[in-house]
Every structure is written in C-alpha cells, then in structure tokens.
Amino acid sequence: IGIIKFSVSRGLILEDLPADAEIKKGDLIISSGLGGIFPSGIPVAIVDSVAPNDGDILKKVTLLPTVDFYKIDEMYVLLRGR
Q: What's the pTM value of the predicted model, to 2 decimals?
C-alpha cells in the first residue's frame, strides 16, 4: 500500500512504498478504497520503473496513468463531503 502523487517535473509517483515490497515494471496499480473517497478496484496506473533509494527504507516508483488524458471527452470529479 502506498500513496500516489503527481508532480509536474516527475509525473505520477508511488510514495511511501516499503523497500521490501514486491513490485516490478508492468504491474497494475489499483485503488484500495481505504480512504473512503474512491471505491476499490479502479485501475489507476502501470509501474514504469522501480528504484531503491540508497540508504532509505522506501522505494522510488514511477507510474504511467492507465488513461490518456488527451483522449478523455468527459470526466467526473469526486469531491469529499463536509
């Protein structure tokens, strides 16, 4: 379990993934549903590269989105209720 974040300079990054996690290029990343906002099982991204951070307990994982955002005609935005 990790957290996906977007950076303009780095793209999609899977953060907080333990160094001993079994993950490899080509793996499919799906939503867990643990945050209570997004349902579980939604395909989010595919692993593009995995690199250990020297001396760190976490891995650096870059991802490719499962959706080509330039080809989307419609999209729903989910907002957290108050």
A: 0.76
